[in-house]
Amino acid sequence: MSTGTAVRPPDDRRAVPAGAEVTVRTSFCFSADGLRAACVATDTDGRHFAEGWRLADRGPRLDLRTSLGSDPTWTQLLPLDGTDVLVSWYGKGGAQSLARLGAGGRRDVVPVPGGRPLRLLPAPAGSGLLALGVSGGAAPDTVVTAVREDGPRFEEVARVPGSLLGGIVLGHRVLFTRLLDGVARPVVLDLRVGALLELETGPGPAHVLAAAAGRVLIARPAPDGHRLAVADLDGDAPPREVHGDTGLPGVVHPLAMDPAGELLALLTTCGARSFLTLLDPVSGTARQVDLPPGDLLPTAAWTGHGLWLPYSDPGRPRTLAWVPPAGGALELPEPARPGHLPARLETFAGADGPVEAVLYGPDWRTARQVVVALHGGPNSRWTLAFDPFLQALAAAGPAVIALNQRGSTGYGAAHTLAVSGAWGGPDLADVTAVTRFLIHERGTGRERPALYGVSYGAYLALLTAAVEPDAWSACAAVAPFLSGPRLHADGSAQVRSMVERLDGLTTAQDRLGPRDVERLAPGLAAPLLLVHGARDDSVPVAHSRTLVARLTALGRRPGTDFHYLELPDRGHAALGTGTADPVVASVVRFLTGQGHPGPPPSERG
Question: Which of 531, 605, 514 is nearest to 568 (CA)?
Fold first, then answer.
């Protein structure tokens, strides 16, 4: 591998336990001492597992994999001492429960008392606690609870005015950012006595980002964004401004401080790719860590054994990688798996500037088929991480262009905020511009591209197919909604908050008019596939049912002009997580013109 990234040989790594292949890992969390990690793993059959990892001097070791037994969407994991994992989830009616999972399928369940949900933080090592709980909700105060191993028992440690954000555990102290009267300030909670003290960071608001060796990394607002500074945990010296930067364009996420508090690990998101920089905050000296093109998550732990962080690339589902103490390259516990296709980046001309895309498969200029893929969000993006659906789609032969049109994250504030108050505006213009370019460059006689979208991307795909009816050979929309205002009216409190935050309620006043898919449905002339999970708690299935009724009233023939798969046992993630998932196979067959998508899997004989 030309990047110099090291992969441990097979006899020096802990393999994934025998069984179906893991395709997705999420919800990573590290112990307070950084010696253990936990995550949710999902395999090709859609089964969910809790994993526990030991972070040792020779790399990460997977030492627990057990059935999760709950919906990972509403699940939080914590690694415990030994090999056990603590799981928090919400059942029917919103009741919260905890379970201690161990080897051999052991599962000890404990209901959480009280009506306020607890956000879990790792307990200090050797404290006799399973976890710390921080109350949420709209109450004017926050309660910090100690979850003791014996019982377990839930004991109130402190009750403080305002909201406590984040939480970095350093022995008997926990660093938070407290939001009180609209002002964010760093605070320190002493678990021994329940006392809360404000950290000396100078005047004005500040946020806690990382801490080690008595030093605290904070962010303070500045005219051009935020400035980083290092404050003393003990002492009243003014914070020292961090010197230097990554030297890279993009969005910077501080990840961790080294155990001595002398170096910062910084993640830079440059569009679809991630970069890792180690920065000396005093001298400003920066060193880039060698890693293959891929995707890092903004969470990490740094111990004497090295820097640990979740990593993925197109040929490798997400796993724990690390940078050894004296290493200059990211090391990976397992190699890229055979059969997974590589990806590359290409930039296209959008309606008002460049638009980057992640490409799979053959050259789109000469490929027999092209599929344009639109992500959900809208504040999301395609990355160089492993994607089960895009892998399955590309394996069927087409060139896949996963587009990061305006509204996508990772390309600066202007790119991301372009769709605020303009859903189906600048993003629709970008998709239309790129599509016209593709058709022109491919020349006459070649098949028109197909279009795929999920969630917000499904909404955008339907809009695009309606306003450019002759541009597409097919359109597949998974979990679509009809419009921002209608999603706000029908969605959950969390969904309504998202629509308000991104101003999806504003109605377009241009020539096209309101971006309502039902209103524009007469333009949906290309072969169409709608897929929706009946248990979708993000986008109500009623939106797809309404569109089906509208298409039928327009004279479109179900099963001929359009197809609708409603999946009774699935939610918002209707496609599942496996490259061999039957619903994935149905969507791939439809997009590549290989036949009727077929009935939902549960209806097959």
Answer: 531
- Closest listed residue to residue 134, CA positions, set 120, 123, 149: 120
Helix ranges restricted to H, 3-159: none
Handedness of CA 225, 230, 231, 233 (dihedral sign): positive
- What is the C-alpha to C-alpha distance for residues 10 and 254, in angstroms, rounded to an integer? 32
Which string of DSSP letters, residue by residue, matches 307-346? EEEEEEETTEEEEEEEE-TT-SB-EESSPPPTTPPPEEEE
Residue whose C-alpha is closest to residue 69's, from 12, 108, 31 = 108
Alpha-carbon dihedral sign for residues 540, 543, 549, 555 = negative
SS3 of residue 515 by DSSP: coil
Neighbours of 578 (CB within 10 A): 24
User: CA–CA separation, 389 vs 590, rounded Å?
Assistant: 14
Task: Report which residue type is found at 17.
Answer: P
Tell me the helix, strand and coil percentages in the chain, rounded to 5. Answer: 15, 40, 45
CA distances from 178 to 174, 193, 486 (A): 12, 19, 35
Type of residue at 358: V
Beta bridge partners of 372: 401, 451
> Reduced to 3 states, what is the DSSP secondary structure of residue 48?
strand
**Degrees (nearest 5) of the Cα angle 534, 538, 544?**
50
Report yes or no: 24 and 575 within 8 Å, Cβ to Cβ: no
Helix axes of 426-442 and 456-467: crossing angle, nearest 10 degrees: 60
**Dihedral, CA of residue 576, residue 582, residue 584 and residue 589, to nearest 10:** -170
How would you classify residue 441: left for phi > 0, otherwise alpha for psi between -120 and 50, otherwise beta? alpha
Q: Is 388 helix (H, G, I), strand (E, B) or coil?
A: helix
Q: Of all helices (H) and strands (E), which one includes residue 358?
A: strand 353-360
SS3 for 348?
Answer: strand
> What residue type is 464 in one-letter code?
T
Residue 410 φ/ψ region, left for φ over 0, alpha for ψ in the -120 to 50 degree band, beta for the rest: left
CB-CB contact of 315 with 306 (8 Å):
no
- What is the structure's pLDDT at 7? 44
DSSP β-ladder status, 295-296 and 306-313: antiparallel
User: Could you list the mean pLDDT of each consecutive 10-residue stretch along the chain, which spans 605 residues?
Assistant: 40 42 92 96 87 92 88 84 90 80 89 83 92 83 92 90 95 95 94 92 91 94 86 88 85 94 95 95 94 95 96 94 90 83 96 97 97 96 95 95 96 93 96 97 95 98 97 97 96 91 89 95 96 93 97 94 93 79 91 77 46
| First-to-final CA distance of the chain | 47
DSSP annotation of 91 reads: -
With tokens 């404050």, the residue in question is 231
The residue among 40, 52, 37, 42 whose CA lies nearest residue 22 is 42
Token pair of 497, please? 């908050």
**What distance lies between CA 408 and its chain's CA centroid?**
13
pTM of structure = 0.90
CA–CA dist 74, 68 (Å, integer): 12
Closest Cα partner for 71 from 100, 50, 102, 101?
A: 50
